[in-house]
Amino acid sequence: MTRTRKPGISRRSTLALMGAGAVTFAAPWVARAQAKTIKIGMPTILSGRVAQLGTSSRNAVMLEVEKVNAAGGLAGRQIEMVIRDSKGQPQEAARIARELVNTDGCEMLLDGEASSGSFAVHEVARDLGVLCIHTCSEASSLTADPKQHIPNAFRCVRQGIHDSIVGAGYAAGIAKAKGLKKWATCSPDYAYGRDTTGEFVLYLKKFAPDVEVISESWPKLFQPDYTEVVTKILQAKPQALYSCLWGGDLTSYIDQANIYALFTQMEVFAVNMADYTALTVVKNLPKGIHSGDRYIKTFPATPENAAWGDAYKAKYNEYPTNWSWQNATAVMFLNEAVKKANSTDGKKVAEVLTGLTIKCPFGADGTVTMRADDHTLVGYAIGWGTTIPQEPYVPDVKAGDWKTIFELEAEWKKSKGYT
Amino acid sequence: MTELQAGQGAQTLAPPRIDARPQRYRDVLIALVAFALLALLPFIFGSKQLLDFVIRCAAYGLFATSLNLLVGYTGLISFGHGMFFGLGAYGFGLMMQKTGVPIPVAFVATLAITCVVAVVIGAICVRLKEIYFAFVTLAFQMLIHSTILSWQSLTGGDQGLRGGIPRPPFLGIDLSNHLHLYITSCALLVIGLFLMRQIAQSPFGYTLRMIRDNATRASFIGIDVWRAKLTIFVLAALFAATGGMIMALFVSGAYPEFAYWTISGEGIFINMLGGVTTFLGPMVGTVLLLILNDTVTRLTEYHGIVLGVVILFFAIGLRKGLMDFVVEWFAQRRGEASG
């Protein structure tokens, strides 16, 4: 008897084919389920006057996220950033933050908003309970005020109060050495300008009691012409000037004050000068302006910090900003916290983040800490120095003392009724 | 002819009163159906983003439609209408944070404050015409914006009202619940639109149209133009403030940007987009702008260019708002059909 092969496909091969088909179709799903990406949402300002800072935040985040992803991701899950422009409008920031969580499925938020926008995103975090790290808002009340406190929100940003304490200590030393008693101030007329200047003067007088402020100027935010402010200061003839103007306002002010040779007639303390965005834009950067550090790759003077600054420059063809290091640090914190929690669950990560200390190129001693009691960043490199017109721009930065900062900050919190 | 005589003449020449009741019944019916449809949405789709979208539509829709009462119906081009949006948001937010009164009380009190401010500002502004009116309203807006920025102890300055807006439940409504907030916003939107529709269709509404077309003639037949303009200015402010309160509840705060000129600019843009000759034009404009904004910002960060091109298309291409275009097109077709 000869076996005749039936036409068509045998049962065995049909089963084999079905099996193969099932594997082919299921494989990506299985793989995806195992290495499901984790989405992190980020509202920030990518258009308008501060777009450069928002872009530099995005750049820094992407630089760090690529490293984390290359090393296997967050608990084995690749990070996918969803970054959207809020145009600097708080209602848009709130909408986008909600959309990122509710619709795009983001499990965490990096809040790249400044000032009012960060408070709007904070309310979204309060409402939705999603893990949120603020990365750009320097307003002290965001974390110092206990009314603002929620367990799922953190702030990975420098603070106005820290800058004022360190700046005043540094300025008082110079004031005593050079006998600078008559001071003038010139700061933008809004909450940040008024608060920071007030705190600086308060601590300056504490460290050098015979200092006296003889002239105050409050130019409007984004004011194009500073002639009246410059002449007012020159007429008052102070020995030193303090300013917390920033960004384009600071560079226009310096360019205009240069015409009147203001910088040869007094010592100038401009807290926001030592940021590459300002340093590289001013036409004739005067020598010897005293400034706080914003981001400068020579401070802290460690190979890690220099390498990070160079890597950023190599990738984006410009230097990082103050917002850049803060955003990068936030990603570093997330990475470490997820490793320790061994989970990407927001609640568990938040628990680990509270009080967490990590190695970081921007730390005063190579580490930074997310302080447990108010969920805010401490231990970052903070200091003051004087400018020169070319790189490295601020060659010698004097580091602030965190012990003093903590003591005075505690007093300040008490005086504000926060503790 | 004396004013008295002119008034008598107007009375004798007045056309017989048209019974407005059937139309009002129709409006009530439309409002009820619209509210029912909106209330059903969350049960059909269940998308939180959609609810957020409708809440924002309610806030901006009330604001833009109230602006159209000034721009489209009365011919008062206000560049400062956003101040009342901001005032509503801040008034309500502060009242809830500082006094802890029930929400309906804060709502009414905010309207009362807005009313007083609008009477004072309006009394000065509505005397002026055209560009002067536009610029003085803008100036008042900047004054209010600057006050919000400077009065830090009360308003929190540029950081806005912080710490969230408390929402104690009232009459079984808990506004911290997303669905409750949605339904309440829809109710406010529908009631607000219904009331504005009644204002627009009332004899007073037709008086406003007459003032828009020829204020001199209106005053000659005995209409107190200043009083009529002031009345609509205050009424429009109240609806704008209601929009502001919805926005304050949505973001759980109030920020100086709510009282900035850009909000007024957006209102004008919405009116251009939707059209000012039909009552629902601004509402259509609101939905269009928000859809455009939300989709374009998702796709590209160069949203400014896209929105700019859209404005150009409407301003130069259509030369009118979308609803104006649609209504004219229908009228033309009907004309052709009957002709």
Automatic annotation (TrEMBL), chain A:
<dbReference type="InterPro" id="IPR000709">
    <property type="entry name" value="Leu_Ile_Val-bd"/>
</dbReference>
<keyword id="KW-0813">Transport</keyword>
<dbReference type="GO" id="GO:0006865">
    <property type="term" value="P:amino acid transport"/>
</dbReference>
<protein>
    <submittedName>
        <fullName>Amino acid/amide ABC transporter substrate-binding protein (HAAT family)</fullName>
    </submittedName>
</protein>
<dbReference type="InterPro" id="IPR051010">
    <property type="entry name" value="BCAA_transport"/>
</dbReference>
<dbReference type="InterPro" id="IPR006311">
    <property type="entry name" value="TAT_signal"/>
</dbReference>
<keyword id="KW-0732">Signal</keyword>
<feature type="domain" description="Leucine-binding protein">
    <location>
        <begin position="37"/>
        <end position="378"/>
    </location>
</feature>
<dbReference type="Pfam" id="PF13458">
    <property type="entry name" value="Peripla_BP_6"/>
</dbReference>
<dbReference type="InterPro" id="IPR028081">
    <property type="entry name" value="Leu-bd"/>
</dbReference>
<keyword id="KW-0029">Amino-acid transport</keyword>
<comment type="similarity">
    <text>Belongs to the leucine-binding protein family.</text>
</comment>
<dbReference type="InterPro" id="IPR028082">
    <property type="entry name" value="Peripla_BP_I"/>
</dbReference>
From TrEMBL, chain B:
<keyword id="KW-1133">Transmembrane helix</keyword>
<feature type="transmembrane region" description="Helical">
    <location>
        <begin position="299"/>
        <end position="318"/>
    </location>
</feature>
<feature type="transmembrane region" description="Helical">
    <location>
        <begin position="267"/>
        <end position="292"/>
    </location>
</feature>
<feature type="transmembrane region" description="Helical">
    <location>
        <begin position="28"/>
        <end position="45"/>
    </location>
</feature>
<keyword id="KW-0812">Transmembrane</keyword>
<feature type="transmembrane region" description="Helical">
    <location>
        <begin position="57"/>
        <end position="81"/>
    </location>
</feature>
<protein>
    <submittedName>
        <fullName>Amino acid/amide ABC transporter membrane protein 2 (HAAT family)</fullName>
    </submittedName>
</protein>
<dbReference type="GO" id="GO:0015658">
    <property type="term" value="F:branched-chain amino acid transmembrane transporter activity"/>
</dbReference>
<feature type="transmembrane region" description="Helical">
    <location>
        <begin position="131"/>
        <end position="151"/>
    </location>
</feature>
<dbReference type="GO" id="GO:0005886">
    <property type="term" value="C:plasma membrane"/>
</dbReference>
<keyword id="KW-1003">Cell membrane</keyword>
<feature type="transmembrane region" description="Helical">
    <location>
        <begin position="101"/>
        <end position="124"/>
    </location>
</feature>
<feature type="transmembrane region" description="Helical">
    <location>
        <begin position="230"/>
        <end position="255"/>
    </location>
</feature>
<dbReference type="InterPro" id="IPR043428">
    <property type="entry name" value="LivM-like"/>
</dbReference>
<dbReference type="InterPro" id="IPR001851">
    <property type="entry name" value="ABC_transp_permease"/>
</dbReference>
<dbReference type="Pfam" id="PF02653">
    <property type="entry name" value="BPD_transp_2"/>
</dbReference>
<feature type="transmembrane region" description="Helical">
    <location>
        <begin position="179"/>
        <end position="200"/>
    </location>
</feature>
<keyword id="KW-0472">Membrane</keyword>
